[in-house]
Write a structure and sequence with these properties.
The protein has 294 residues and is α+β, with helices and mostly antiparallel strands. The chain has 12 helices and 9 strands. The radius of gyration is 22 Å and the shape is globular. Belongs to the bacterial reverse transcriptase family. InterPro entries: Cro/C1-type_HTH, DNA/RNA_pol_sf, Reverse_transcriptase_msDNA, RT_dom. One of its GO terms (molecular function) is RNA binding.
Amino acid sequence: MKEYSINQSPFYKCHNKKKLAKILGVSISELRNIGKKIYYREFINKKGRVVYEPNSYIKKIQSKINDLIGRIEKPYWLQGGIKKRSNITNSMLHKKSYYFLILDIKKFFENCQRYYVYLFFKNKMKMSSDCSNILADICTYNGKLVTGSPSSVLISFFSYEDMFINIFSLLDTNQVLSVYVDDITISSTLPIVDPHCLKHEINSVLKKYGHSLNLEKSKYYGKSEFKKITGVVVSPKNELKVPNDHRKKIVDGINKIDNVGERSKLSGRLSYASQIEPNIFPTIKAINKKIHDD
């Protein structure tokens, strides 16, 4: 998908509700009463995270917003929520590096406030206050961004773009940055001179915007170590590797292959692993293929 500058977005300088309704594919009456149609279902996912799933009506509008926002130019180091970018492409950016500082933003979505979403539409998109308020209400729930909304990942970046650019400005020219939702990875072919100091400088930037690092999850890796980045391991020899826990699930899965549900899980896990290591588990792949063909 070809990207364009922000001033080419349909949202740019949108100053009336009639135009906004047309962009979102709803009637002007629906737009004026949209607050009454916003509902979310709260549940805990398999990872133990609280998810707020929007009702189908709002989800469709959020997906439309996400599609249009997704066409705006984005930096190469932003890897989350973008077509053809993933946790795997995120790790690929660091494949040639030896030294890694891996950081995690604490409760990121929970601390992404509606006010910053409003400011993105008002100041960056140069929309009218009423149109900016409507979009901020559609994209947030209880005054914040939530896991479960299709627009949250990209909106979180654009709403806090200045924060991430400030972090990028702290790095040396030989250092590589990537941002995957709430995961920040900084790597280099040379040792990072003072990773502890850099970590706290980044934390200071985050705090200016109401965020902070999860210091317990922050790690610095040296040249001889295996580094796990967003679900992918980078070896000391600069090779991308499938994590051991994922390998174990595949090996265990071959013993449950007679179960249709487990067979489907195995196929998915093999497919994912092959994106990281194309030649991984040839025997298991052959067995899995034979059973599917039969």
